[in-house]
Amino acid sequence: MREVYLDHAATTPPYPEVLKALQESYATIYGNASSLHATGQKARRALEKAREDIAKLIDAEPEEVYITSGGTESDNIALFGTEALYPGQPMITSLIEHEAVLESAKALESKGHPVRFLPVDTNGVVDLNALKAYLEEKPFLVSVMAANNEIGTVQPVKEIAKLAHERGALVHTDAVQAVGKIPINVRELGVDMLSASAHKFYGPKGIGFFYLRKGVKVLPIVQGGGHERGLRSGTENVPGAIAMALALKISTRLFTRTHYRYERWTAQILSKCGEIGGFRLNGHPQQRVPGLLSLSFKRINGEALMELLDMNGVAVSTASACQSHSAKRGYSHVIQSLGIDEEYANGTIRVSLGVENVQEEVDFFCEILKKCVLQLRGYRNGQ
Amino acid sequence: MIYLDHYRTTPVSEAVVSKMAPFFRDDFFLPEPFTKRGTKAEEIIEQANRTLLDTFHLKTGEVMYTSGGTAANNIVISGVLRDVEPSQAHAVCAVIDHPSIVHTYEYYRKKGVSVTFLKVDDDGWIDPEELRWSIQPKTLLVSFTHVNHTIGVIQPLEQLLPIIKERNPNTRIHIDAAVSLNAMDLDLTKLPIDFLTFSGHKIYGPKGIGAVVFRNNGLLKPTLFGSVTTSPFTPGAENIPGIVGLAEALRLAAEKRATYRLKTRRLQERAINLIESDIPDVVLNGPKPTSFGNLDAIPTQRAVDNINFSFRYVEGESIMLFLDFEDIVVATGSACASSDLKVNYVLSAIGRDHEMAHGSLRITPGWDNDEEQIDRFVDRLKPIVSRLRAQSTLR
Amino acid sequence: MVNKYSPLLTDHFMNPRNIGRLTDYTFKVESDHLKDGDQIVFYVDLENGRVKDISYKIQGCPRVIAASSFTSELVKGKTISEVLEIKEDAIAERLGITDPSFVCIRLPLATLQRKLKEYVSG
Amino acid sequence: MAVIRYSEKVLEHFRNPKNIGLIENADGQSTVGSPACGDQVSMFLKVEEDRIADIKFLSYGCASNIATGSIITEMAKGKTLAEAKAITWKDAVDELGGLPPVKIHCSVLAIDGLRAAIQDYEEKTTGVKSERKVDEMAILDELKKVIYPKNGINIVDTNMIRYLSFEEGTIYIEVSLEETDVFKQNVLEEIYEHLEALPGVDKVEIKVVEY
C-alpha cells in the first residue's frame, strides 16, 4: 500500500544534504567546542560558522543566537529565564500557544505571576484590543507564537511587539512553525526573543535555537559548565548545529518553489473538499503558513478520520501531533478557541505538505480523503 | 592526530552511525498512539529503553532521554528540589562533582535549600563517615559522580550507597555515570541508585542526547513544560536518531567493556610509567591505579582510561598548545585555559596548590589509541616540559 | 506505553458489522458519556428473551466504533441474562486495549447492559 | 563562553620566544604576578647610557604571557628608558595582532614587569626610592591594570568602579559585578593583588554591587 506522508508540521525528514553534513561532522568534528586545542577549535569554528549562518538568515547578530536542544527548551528559557527578574509581575500569552509555552505559563502562574490569555477570533488571530487592555497591568512579558501549529495562522507579531514595547514589556515569539517556512526577520518583527526547532524545517531532531536580542537579560535555566555564553550549559551539539544551519539555508532558498507548489495543491485539496461537502478550512484565509491545512468535516470524529486515512496509507494528524494521548478526548484547545460549531470542530484533521511530496501523492490523498469521509459518514447514517 | 581527550568527548563509532542512519530520513516519524508510523516510533524508543535497562541489569524501570548529561543532571536535581519548601530540604553532593551537579546545587543553596558539599581526601575519595553524618531526616537527594571527570577516581558505590539508605531510606540517590560506562559495569539490582545519568557523546555515541535511568519517578517534578508523548519530564519532539544512537553506543560499550578495559589499562600503565620515569618533578593527581600486575582485575580505585599529572614549574595551557602543534590533543586544568580563568576546582579540592593545578594535564586514551601513540606522546612531551621549565620564573 | 491496534480492532473499525437501523426493533438506546457531537444509537430486536437482531449508527473514535461492532456480534443470539453476564474487560482484552483510561472501549456494552437491565425490571 | 583564539603572531612568539632567559648581575630586575594566579614574569635589564642595551625575561604562564614577554622585550630593546616606559600594553597587543579579551591581563602584567625593572634600575642608580604618593588617582591608575576578561578593557573604563575612598590605610571600593558573572572571583582577586601591593595600604575592602 502506498505511504503518503502529509504530517510535516509534526516533524520532517532532514534534507539529504543535511544528513550528509551531519554524518560527516560526526566523523570529523569530534572535538568539544569549549576546549582550547586545535580539534576543539575546529569544532568551535564550525559552531560559530553555523551560528553566523543562522543569524544571517533571520537578520540577527551571531552573538544573539544560542544553540539549544529544540523548541521546547527555547520556549522554557524565554519564560523561566526572565520570570525571576520580575517577581509577581503578570505575563501575557495567547489561548492558542503550543504546549511548550502554555504549560510553562501555567507553571509561572503557580509561581505567583498572573497570566493573561489573549483570545483569538474565528480565524485564529489574537485580539489586539485585549492585548492593549492587559498591557495596562504592566506585564513583564508578552509571548505570542509567530504561526500556529494546528491551523497555520500567522500572528501580527510586529504589531504585538510594538504595542508591548511601548508599555515596557519583553516580547517572545515561539516561531517553531514559522522559521524555515516563511521569511522571518527578527529586526523587522522587533521581538526580544524567538524560539525555533530544526526538525520542523528538515534539520535533525534534538537541536534548535534561541534568539535573544543584545542587551536583554535572561538567566540560565540549566546550571552547568557555562556553555553558550552562560545561558545554556551542556556540551555543544556541533554536528547538530551545522546541520541545522544548512537546513535553514536550504529551506529559505526553496521558499519560492515550495510556496508555489503548496498553493496549487491547497487549491486542489480544497476543491476536493468542496466535492465531499460539509467542511470548513480553519485559520486565516490569507495570513497563513503555506502548506498547512486544518480541515474540519461535519459529523465526523477527527481521530477516526485520521486512523482511517492512516490505514489507507496516508499520514495526517488530528489536533497536534504530540497530544492525542490515551483518554484525552475531544478536540484541541486551539480548535476550541476558534469558537467554531462543535459539529465541525470534532472532525478536524491537519494536513501539512512537505518538500518531498509530489503531484501523484496529492492526487492519491484527495481520492482517499473522499473515500474515508464518506465511509465514516456512512457509519453515522447507518449505510 | 593523537587524540587523548576522550573524557571531553569521543567520536561517534561507525557502528552507531549506521545504526542511526535509517532514522533520519526513512523512519523519521515521531511517536504517536495507534498510527502505524507512530507506534513504530514508540517501539523503537521502547527497544532503546530495553537496551538501557538491560545494560544496567534492570528488569523494570523507566528511562527518559535528555539533550545530554548536563540536562539529565539538571532534570534530576531540579526535579527534586524546585518545588519543595527550601527550608525543609537538604541535599548532598561532593565538591569534585561535575559542574552540572555542583553549579545546580549551588543555585538551590542560594534559593535557601541547605546543601552539604562533601569534601574529599587527597586521592578524591569521599569519607564514608562524613557521608553518614551528612544525611539528615530532611535529606531529599544525594548526588555524586561515579568516576570523576578530572582525576578518574572511582567512588566505591557498594560501600557508600547503603550508608545513605541506612540513615534515611527516603533519601534518593543520583549517580552521574558520564565517564564510567566505557570501562565500568553498573548493576542497578545490586546498587540502590534511584537516578542514573549519562550522555551519548562520552561513549562513542552522538552529541545532543543523554538519559536518566530510574526505578520510579517518585519525587520528581517536571522542570520543562511542553507537549508530552513519552515522558512528562522531557516534553517536546523525541530525538529518535539520537535515542537509537545512545542505546547502540551503550550496548556496544557493555559488549566490548572487557576488551576496552584491557586496552586502555595497558595504555594507562605505559603512559604513567613512561612519564614518571622520563620526566622529573611530576605528581600523579588522583589515586594510583589498582596493581598493574593483574590486568583482568576490575579496577576499583582509578578508572583505566584516565591519567592526570601535574608538572611542576610549568603552566598547562602552554604544554597543551605545544602538544597541539604536534597534533596531540590533551586537556589541562590550568586556569588560563578555562573560559572563566578559574583554576580547576577538582585539583584544588584534592589539595593541589594553584601552581600545581595550573601545571596539570589530563590524558584520557580511548579506542583509537595504541601503544605506539602513547610512546610518541611522551616522547614529544618530554622536550616541551624541559623547554618551558628552562624559561620559567620558578625554576 | 505502546499503543497499537490489534488486527481484530482494526478489522472491526474498518469494516464494522451490523451498521444501520433495524426496521423492526424492540427498543433503541443512545449512549451517554460521548461528547463533541459523537454518538451511538443501538437498535435491539428481542425475541423470547433473546437478542434476535441488533444494529447501530455511530459517530466516534476508532475504538468506540470497533467496540460497538464487536459487541453487536457478541450479543447477537444471546439471552438477556447471558448478555448481562459479559464482563466489560472481556471486550477490552479481546480488542487489545487494556488501559483502563480508555472508557470508550467499554461504553457500547455498558450502554446495552444498562438498557437491558431497565427493560427486565420493567 | 569566550572564544579563545590566538593570532598567528602570538603563536609564533609563543613557539619561539625572543629574549628568553636570565641576565646575571642585571642592572635592573623585577618579578611581577604570582603563580597562584597562573602568571608570573621576571624581567632583567642591562642599561648603557640610558638605553636598554639588553633585556631578557622568564615566564611562568600561558601562551599569551610568553608571547607578550617576547614582544615587549623586542619593543624595548635599544630604546631609551623614557621611551621604554612609555610603551603601553595596548602597543604590545597591537604589535601582536590582537589578543583575546580574556588574555589582555597577560600583556598588562608584562608591561608592569618592564616598568618595575626600569624603576628598580633607577632606584639602584639614584639611591632614591621613588615612592609615589598613594592617593585616589594612584589607586585608579592601579585599578586600570585590572582587565575585565569579558571585553578586554580595564575595570575603570568599563565603569565598574562605583565608589572609591582611601582613609587611614584602608581602601574601600565598590565594584559593579553581577552575582552570576563568571569572572567575578577573578576580578576580585586581581583587585586585591594590585591594591594590597601599594605602599601604605593595610587593608582593601571590596563591596560587590549589582548596579
What does this structure look like?
- The complex is a heterotetramer of chains A (about 375), B (about 400), C (about 120) and D (about 210).
- Helices cover about 45% and strands about 15% of the residues of chain A.
- Chain A has helices at about 15-30, 40-60, 70-85, 100-110, 130-135, 155-165, 185-190, 240-275, 300-310, 335-340, 340-345, 360-380; strands at about 5, 65-70, 90-95, 115-120, 140-145, 170-175, 195, 210, 280, 290-295, 315, 350.
- Chain A has two domains: about 5-10 and about 255-380, Aspartate Aminotransferase, domain 1 (Alpha-Beta Complex), CATH 3.90.1150.10; about 15-250, Aspartate Aminotransferase, domain 2.
- Residues about 320-330 of chain A have low confidence and may be disordered.
- A seven-stranded mixed sheet of chain A has the order 2-8-7-6-5-3-4, with helices on both faces.
- Chain B folds into two domains: about 15-255, Aspartate Aminotransferase, domain 2 (3-Layer(aba) Sandwich); about 255-390, Aspartate Aminotransferase, domain 1 (Alpha-Beta Complex).
- Chain B has 13 helices and 13 strands.
- In chain B, strands 2-8-7-6-5-3-4 form a seven-stranded mixed sheet, sandwiched between helices.
- Chain B is globular, with a radius of gyration of 21 Å.
- The model of chain B has no long low-confidence stretch (mean pLDDT about 90).
- Chain C has a single domain, classed as Sufe protein. Chain: A (Alpha-Beta Complex), CATH 3.90.1010.10.
- Chain C has helices spanning about 5-15, 60-75, 80-85, 90-95, 105-120, and strands at about 25-30, 40-45, 50-60.
- Chain C has a three-stranded antiparallel sheet with strand order 1-2-3, covered by helices on one side.
- Chain D is α+β, with helices and mostly antiparallel strands and about 210 residues long.
- Chain D folds into two domains: about 10-125, Sufe protein. Chain: A (Alpha-Beta Complex); about 135-210, Fe-S cluster assembly (FSCA) (GMP Synthetase, Chain A, domain 3).
- Chain D contains seven helices and eight strands, in the order αβββαααααββββαβ.
- Chain D has helices at about 10-15, 65-75, 80-85, 90-95, 105-125, 135-145, 185-195; strands at about 30-35, 40-50, 50-60, 145-150, 155, 160-165, 170-175, 205-210.
- Chain D is globular and about 50 Å long.
- The two termini of chain D are about 25 Å apart.
- The chains are: A alpha/beta (about 375), B alpha/beta (about 400), C alpha+beta (about 120), D alpha+beta (about 210).
- At the A-C interface, α9, α11 and α12 of A face α1 and β3 of C.
